[in-house]
């Protein structure tokens, strides 16, 4: 039985601006050269031995040129194979970054369009959260298609229940470990959608990037995470950006309320991530899919009373169910579902840093969309504030050993420069 550690820095894992798991570890894969792969490796080694013997005999007869030709062949093929693999990784990473950017920006823009005909942000939040029920079925379909060792859904369900401890998913665990996360999930999305009614999608997406700074502060205080000065600077940038965006709108009550709602949404997201790390630790792909499915089940079963109460009290009231823009609601739900899938499972094909870069790129995409669809004014203060927040977001992506890596990079650059100067000097001396 695996054990979860509550002392894992959330910022070193797959962080995202919307509610996702703070860290999702992939299923353990067999090491290269073990199992079936080791058999192939032994056959390949024997063949290479025969080729090497033949090459050595030809080298003794032909002055050693055959040995050099044989050694150059596999090395060239290895470099070519490595370049192809890097090209595939770059293409997958670019595809994931563009998908994250488009899904997050599309969610914000489509939500603002939906509010023109359907002004019910909590109903939209509840409807989108119900689609979380699809996570575990989708995961099992992928598992059944790609895995060699097949398990029926019940066996896979029991294995994924290890996330909740030795007893698995019990009634007590369902209410104590699911209810807080479902409430935080709902509040995060609801407050964000509510803020979109008052401020632009550009400001909302930029302000929501501050959740990484809040995650760092909470993990530093609650989880006793490692102190890093650069992340403190990033947190200061985030706070300064919030103040500057508020100043850019002139401290009007309408915009101040919207900014406060986005900041509260980012705080709920950060609390969700740190609480998950503290209570459950980390999760594999299947465990993450089951956890999100359980959140959707809790949302359908218990949270449904909230939009029902809001409807009958007139707070979120619409005239007829036939006038509900189902195509827009389904579009928002599909975009959020795609975004959550990319955040939690995109690390299978690319790095978490690239995924987070896709989140930052959604800010200029929203800015272009707002410039054509709304009357937002991009004055100097607003632009500087957005850039400061994005800079703070990127600073939080730096690894913990970034300073040592920078020193090594600078030292390598100096050594290469010194070698170039020496070569130039030696060439000049040889010319005379």
Overview of the molecule:
The structure is a single chain. The protein has 432 residues and is mainly alpha-helical. It contains 16 helices and 2 strands. A two-stranded parallel ribbon has the order 1-2. Helix 1 packs antiparallel against helix 2. The longest helix is centred in the N-terminal third of the chain and has 50 residues, at 65-114. The chain is globular, with a radius of gyration of 27 Å. Residues 1-20 and 22-72 have low confidence and may be disordered.
General shape: globular
Average pLDDT, all residues: 77
* First-last Cα distance: 74 Å
Binned, the helix content reads over 70%
If you compute it from the alpha carbons, what radius of gyration comes out, rounded to the nearest whole angstrom? 27 Å
Largest sheet at a glance? 2 strands, parallel
Order of helices and strands: EHHHHHHHHHHEHHHHHH
User: Taking strands numbered 1, 2, ... along the chain, how are they ordered across the largest sheet?
Assistant: 1-2
Number of helices: 16
Structural category is mainly alpha
What labels describe this entry?
432 residues, mainly alpha, two-stranded parallel ribbon, 16 helices, 2 strands, 73% helix, globular, disordered N terminus
How do the helices and strands line up, and which of them pair or pack?
Blueprint: E1 24-25, H1 36-62, H2 65-114, H3 121-130, H4 135-146, H5 153-160, H6 171-196, H7 201-208, H8 211-221, H9 229-248, H10 253-279, E2 283-284, H11 285-303, H12 305-312, H13 326-345, H14 352-373, H15 380-395, H16 402-431
Parallel strand pairs: 1-2
Helix pairs in contact: 1-2, 2-13, 2-14, 3-6, 3-13, 4-11, 5-11, 6-10, 6-11, 7-10, 7-14, 8-9, 8-10, 9-15, 14-15
């Amino acid at each position: 039985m695996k054990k979860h550690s509550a002392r894992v820095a959330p910022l070193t894992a797959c962080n995202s601006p919307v509610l996702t798991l703070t860290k999702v570890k992939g299923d353990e894969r067999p090491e290269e050269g073990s199992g079936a792969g080791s058999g192939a490796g032994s056959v390949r080694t024997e063949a290479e031995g025969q080729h090497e013997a033949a090459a050595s005999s030809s080298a003794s007869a032909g002055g050693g040129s055959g040995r050099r030709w044989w050694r150059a062949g596999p090395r060239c093929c290895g470099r070519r194979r490595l370049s192809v693999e890097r090209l595939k990784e770059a293409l997958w990473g670019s595809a994931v970054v563009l998908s994250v950017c488009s899904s997050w920006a599309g969610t914000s823009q489509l939500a603002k369009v939906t509010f023109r005909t359907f002004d019910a942000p909590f109903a939209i939040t509840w409807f989108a959260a119900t689609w979380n029920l699809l996570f575990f079925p989708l995961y099992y379909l992928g598992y059944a298609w790609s895995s060699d060792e097949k398990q029926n859904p019940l066996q896979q369900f029991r294995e994924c229940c290890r996330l909740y401890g030795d007893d698995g998913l019990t009634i007590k665990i369902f209410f104590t470990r699911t209810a807080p996360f479902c409430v935080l999930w709902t509040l995060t999305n609801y407050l964000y959608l509510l803020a979109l009614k008052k401020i632009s999608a550009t400001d909302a997406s930029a302000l929501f990037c501050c959740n990484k700074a809040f995650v760092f502060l909470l993990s530093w205080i609650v989880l006793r995470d490692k102190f890093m000065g650069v992340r403190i600077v990033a947190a200061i940038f985030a706070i300064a950006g919030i103040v500057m965006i508020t100043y850019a709108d002139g401290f009007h009550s309408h915009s101040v309320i919207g900014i406060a709602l986005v900041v509260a949404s980012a705080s709920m997201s950060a609390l969700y991530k740190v609480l998950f790390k503290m209570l459950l630790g980390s999760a594999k792909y299947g465990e993450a899919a089951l956890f999100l499915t359980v959140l959707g089940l809790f949302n359908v079963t218990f949270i449904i009373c909230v939009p029902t109460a809001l409807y009958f009290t007139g707070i979120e009231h619409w005239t007829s169910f036939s006038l509900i823009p189902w195509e827009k609601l389904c579009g928002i739900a599909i975009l959020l579902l795609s975004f959550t899938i990319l955040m939690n499972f995109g690390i299978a094909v690319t790095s978490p840093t690239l995924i987070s870069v896709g989140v930052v790129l959604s800010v200029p995409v929203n800015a272009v969309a707002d410039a054509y669809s709304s009357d937002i004014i991009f004055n100097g203060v607003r632009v500087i504030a957005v850039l400061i927040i994005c800079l703070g977001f990127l600073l939080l992506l730096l690894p913990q050993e970034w300073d040592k890596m920078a020193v090594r990079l600078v030292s390598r650059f100096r050594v290469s420069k010194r070698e170039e100067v020496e070569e130039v000097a030696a060439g000049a001396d040889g010319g005379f």
